[in-house]
Amino acid sequence: MDTYAVHLAMAALVGASFVAVSAYYMHRKTLNQLLEFAKSVERESDETTPRTTTTRRSIPRSTPRSGGATAAGGRGMAITAALRRPVTLPLLFKIIGNALEKQQACLKYNGEIANQDVVDVEVVDSTIVILAASGCHWKSPSHASSTKRAGHLIRPTSPKSPVASASAFESVEGSDDEDNMTDNAKLNAYIHTNGNVVPECNSLFKDLPSQNNANGEQIPIAASSMIRSHSVSGDLHGVQPDPVAADILRKEPEHETFVRLNITPNEMPSPEEADVYRNLQACLELRQSYVFREAITPWEKEVISDPSTPKPNPSPFDYTPEGKSDHYFKMEDGVAHVYANEDSKEKLFPVADATTFFTDLHHILKVIAAGNIRTLCHHRLVLLEQKFSLHLMLNADREFLAQKSAPHRDFYNVRKVDTHVHHSACMNQKHLLRFIKSKLRKEPDEVVIFRDGTYLTLKEVFESLDLTGYDLNVDLLDVHADKSTFHRFDKFNLKYNPCGQSRLREIFLKQENLIQGMSLFSHLSEMLKLHVEKGFSFLFCRFLAELTKQVFSDLAASKYQMAEYRISIYGRKMSEWDQMASWIVNNDLYSENVVWLIQLPRLYNVYKEMGIVTSFQNILDNIFLPLFEVTVDPDSHPQLHVFLKQVVGLDLVDDESKPERRPTKHMPTPAQWTNIFNPAFSYYVYYCYANLYTLNKLRESKGMTTIKFRPHTGEAGDIDHLAASFLTAHNIAHGINLRKSPVLQYLYYLAQIGLAMSPLSNNSLFLDYHRNPFPMFFSRGLNVSLSTDDPLQIHLTKEPLVEEYSIAASVWKLSSCDLCEIARNSVYQSGFSHALKSHWIGKEYYKRGPDGNDIHRTNVPRIRLEFRDLIWREEMQLVYLGNASFAEYMEP
Length: 892
Ligand SMILES: [Zn+2]
Known about the structure:
CATH superfamily of the largest domain: Metal-dependent hydrolases
Structural class: alpha/beta
CATH topology of the largest domain: TIM Barrel
Mean pLDDT: 73
CATH class of the largest domain: Alpha Beta
Bound molecules: zinc ion
Radius of gyration: 35 Å
Number of helices: 36
Cofactor: Zn(2+)
CATH architecture of the largest domain: Alpha-Beta Barrel
Distance between the termini: 111 Å
Protein name: AMP deaminase
Enzyme class: hydrolase
Strand content: 5-15%
Helix content: 40-55%
Pathway: Purine metabolism; IMP biosynthesis via salvage pathway; IMP from AMP: step 1/1
Keywords: Hydrolase, Membrane, Metal-binding, Transmembrane, Transmembrane helix, Zinc
C-alpha cells in the first residue's frame, strides 16, 4: 500500500471531521445565541410587565414537556423543541432572522414599547412552526393563529391589492390564502407605523379600539382570528375556553368601535352644484308637505314601561260602541272633505288639490330629467356605494365580532316581516295541494259553486273536470310561475287558477262562492281572470279562511316571522268593505304575527266596460265613503270598525307596464272621467292619497288607528309612478325602476323611503335576478327590505320569507350582518304596533342612528347603524349646504 495515499486519506478524514465538528459547534453557538436572545427578550418583558396568561397561553401547549413549565420557561422549551427538528431548522432561522429584523425595526420606531415586543414561537404540530408577535407594528392579530396565518407572517409584508369586497362574507369567510391576513391586521399595521411618523394622523383613527387588558397590554382583535383560535385550541386540547375570545365576549357589544371613514373632504359645492342641491331640497320639502304624518307620534302616545312580551289581544274582534261624532263629510271633486258639522263651511283637514298635485308632480319630473342634476346624483350614489365597500373592508370583521358577542341572537331569531305579500297567494303550492286533497276527502258533498244554472258539490266539480284527488299533484296544480310568465303579467295571473281551472280558483282562492250563501259573480270572475292584478281574491270563502288560518299557525310556529297580507277591495260596490270585515271577523282571522293591507286593483276600465261603474267617481265613492262612515259613526259598521284596527295600509296594484298617458296639470275630475280608458297611475295615486289623507286626519283626531299609503310602485312602467309615490307614499313595494333614475333614487335615499323589494318575484315577471338592483340599493343605504310577493307562484319551501333571504344571501353574498340589517328595516317599515316594534327591535327603535338600535334584539352591530347614520347625515348636510337640521326621532 502506498503510505502516502493512506496518509492523505487519513488527513482528509481528520480534516473533514474537524470541519464537521467545528461546523457543529458553530451551529450550536448560533442556536444558543438565538436561544439566549429569546430568553433575554422574555426576561425583559417579564421585568417590565407582569404578564398574564391571557397573552402567553399559546406557548406552553407546544410540547408535552412544556406542560408543567412556567410560561417563560415554556416559551424557551418550545423553541428548543422546535430547534431539535431538523426539518424545521431552515424555516426557523428564517423566522427568527425575520423576527430579529422586525424587532429592530420595531425598536427603532417605538423605543418606548420595547416591553411589548414579544416573540412567540409555537409548535402546532410536528412540522409547522407558528410565529406570532404582539405589540409591534408587524404583530399578528392573534396569538393562536392558524397555520395558514403563520404562512403570512413569514412572508414579506407586501400590501395585498385592496380589492373592494362587496360583502362582509367575502372578507371573513372567503379568505383561503391571500386574504388570510385580515384587513384589520393590516390596518393596525398601517396605523402603528403611521401613528408615530405622522402624529396628526392619530386623530383620524382615534376611535380605533384600544383593546387593553388589565395590564395595559394591547390585545389585538380580529373576528376571523377569533374563529380560528377556537378551532385550533379545540383541535389540540379539546374544548378549552379561549381567554381572549372570552374577554371580548364579556364586553358589551355596544362598546365596539369602528374605523370611521373620514374621506369626505370639506366639499364646497360650486355655484352650479349648490343650485342642484337647492333643487333637491325643494323636492324633499315638497314630499314633507304631502305625506301624512301623525301629529302625535306613537311613542309619544304610548310609553312602553313594561319590558316583557306584549300580551296577545284576547278578544281582537270585540266591539264596544263608541258613539257618533258630529263630523260631516262629502265628496268634492273626487276628494272627501270633512267638516265639523253639517252647517260648517270650513274644511277641517285641507289637502292639496289635484291641480296643485299635478303641478308639483311635473316639477319633480322636470328636476329628475335635468342633465346636470342627474350627473351629480349619480356621482353621489356611486360615492355612497364606494363608502359602503370601504366600510366593509375596514369593519366587516368588527361587525361580525359584535354579532358574535350578542348573546342568543342570530339571523334565525331576529324578527323579520314579510312587508309585501298578497293574501291569496300566501300559501305555498304544496300547502294548497294538500288542502284541496283533504277537502275532497273530508267534505266532498259541500256545495261549492253555482255554474250554468246548477249547484255543484266539490266532488261534482272534480268529476266535471275529470279529475280525482289521486290525480292531483303540484305539476297538475300548475300555479307556479315559470319562464312563460316573464313579461307576461296576464299569464302570471292565469297561474292563479289551480289546474288552469278558474272553477277551482273560485272554490279555493276566491271568496264569493256559495259556502256562505253568497251569490257568485262567476261572469265577473271569468272576465276578471284575464285582467286582474296579482293577489286577486274574493270574499267569503270558508275554505280560504281555513287555509288562511293554517298559514297563520305556521307563522306563529316560526315565531320570528311576520307578514302584512294584502287583500283586495275592488270598488265595485260599497258593501265590499262590510263583506270583507265580516269574513275576517266571523272566521276569527286574527294573528299576532299578521296585519292587513287593503289592495286596490286599478281596474276602472274593466268595470266600465262591464257597465258596473259609470265614472271614476263611483269607484272612489265605493272605496272611501264606507271608511268615512265607519270613522264618524263606528256603530254603523261595527265589524268594519274592529277590522280596520288591524288594517295598516292601502296599496295600489296592477300591471304597471300597461301603456298610459301621462297626466297633464289640468285633468278631468273623477266625476268627469267617464271614458273607457283607465286613468294613469298618478291619477289613481293622487285620489287615493288625498282621500286617505283626510280620512287619516279624521281618524287621528278621534284617536283611531291610521292607514298608511303604501302602493306598488316602480315594478315596471314609467318613471312618473315613482315620482308620484315620492310625493305621497309612506313607503312602496318594488321600486326596481329607481335604477333608471339617479335623481329619484337619490331622493328616495335622502328621504329614507322604505322599499319592500321582491327580487324573486321580479325574476318571474320583469327583471332577471342577477340584474336586480337590490344589492346596489342596499349598499348605497336605501331603506330596503326583502319580501315574498307571491309564495304560491314563486317559492318552493315552507318558509318563503327565509327562502327569499337565503337566495339573496347566496347570490349577492350578503353577510349575516347585512341580513339582520334588512330584517330590522322590514320591522321598521311595517305597520305593526309601537308596542310590538319596541319589543322586536328595541325600546328606542324610533331614535335615529345607532341609539335606536338594540343589538340584543336585532343582532345588528352598532357599528353598522353608526356608519349608515354618519353617511346619511353627511349627505343631508351637503344637500342642505350645511344647514340641515335633524330631528332626534325618525319620522313616524
Ligand atoms: Zn306585489
